[in-house]
Amino acid sequence: MQVLTRAWRAEGPEVERAATWRVALSGVLALVGLGLSIYLTITHFEPHFLVCAESGAINCQLVTTSPQAYVFGIPVAILGLAYYAVVCVVDSPWAWRSADRRVHLARVVLSVLGMAFVLYLVAAELLVIKAICIYCTGVHIVTFAQLILVMATVPTMLGWGRPPEPAPRGARRRPSNNRGAKR
User: Fold this and answer.
1) Angle, to 10 degrees, between the axis of helix 134-157 and the axis of helix 101-123?
2) Phi and psi of 52, rounded to 5°?
3) Looking at the domain assignment, is residue 1 inside a domain?
4) Is residue 172 part of a domain?
5) 41-62 pLDDT, tens per residue?
6) Beta strands 74-75 and 70-71: pairing type?
7) Structural domain range at position 130
8) pTM for this one?
9) How many folded domains does the chain comprise?
10) 59, 69 contact by CB (below 8 A)
11) What is the Cα–Cα distance from 146 to 37, expressed in whole angstroms?
């Protein structure tokens, strides 16, 4: 628990900057995901705008109108739209330059949660509905690419996996808490 508390603090070692191409790619992926989510939300309410095969393994109509297209009574398309609206904010160039570690941790948490939801949706498409939607698959691929990009970038930015910096010479060391030591 202490690790999570320490990781969530706003202060800490300086946050390294991400490579410009990673920031740009992250923004592009977020915008593509948002665009696909907008289209899926529109077609959820206006199905006649849906341009996709309606038979066989690829059947967007079947997927987007199935009972699995709702979670707790909320259309999955709206959840995707809300998710990508938030992702666009945390993947903006300004958020990537933030010195607040919580912004970068939020990006990691969102990516992991987004991918977990994608795995549920893919399982529903393949195992329950037995059809796939090409636009949904586009969102799934974007979410997976976003996860890869974030997990390859953010831990390094936050200094995870690096040994702690040595104390400056002459600094007093904290006494260790050796419970088994003789007094």
Assistant:
1) 150
2) -165, 160
3) no
4) no
5) 999 999 888 888 777 889 988 9
6) antiparallel
7) 19-157
8) 0.78
9) 1
10) no
11) 15
Cα separation, 71 vs 82, in Å, equals 14
Res 173: pLDDT = 57
Q: What is the pLDDT of residues 71-129, one digit of tens each?
A: 999 999 999 999 999 999 999 999 888 888 888 889 999 999 999 999 999 999 999 99
CA distance 166 to 159: 14
Is 179 a domain residue? no
Q: What is the mean pLDDT of residues 7-11?
A: 49
Q: What is the pLDDT of residues 123-173, one digit of tens each?
A: 999 999 999 999 999 999 999 999 999 988 877 777 666 656 666 676 565
Please check whether residue 145 lies inside any domain of the structure: yes
Question: By three-state DSSP, how is residue 71 classified?
Answer: strand
Q: Facing residues of 75 across strands?
A: 70
Angle among Cα 171, 173, 176 to the nearest 5 degrees reads: 175
Q: Give the domain CATH number at 119.
A: 1.20.1440.130
Sign of the four-CA dihedral 80, 81, 86, 90:
positive
- For residues 60 and 103, give the distance between their C-alpha atoms in angstroms, rounded to a whole number: 35
- Angle at 117 (CA atoms; ends 27, 106), nearest 5 degrees: 50
Q: How many helices (H) and strands (E) does the chain have?
A: 7, 2
Query: Which amino acid, one-letter code, is at 149?
Result: L
Cα separation of 74 and 84, whole Å? 16
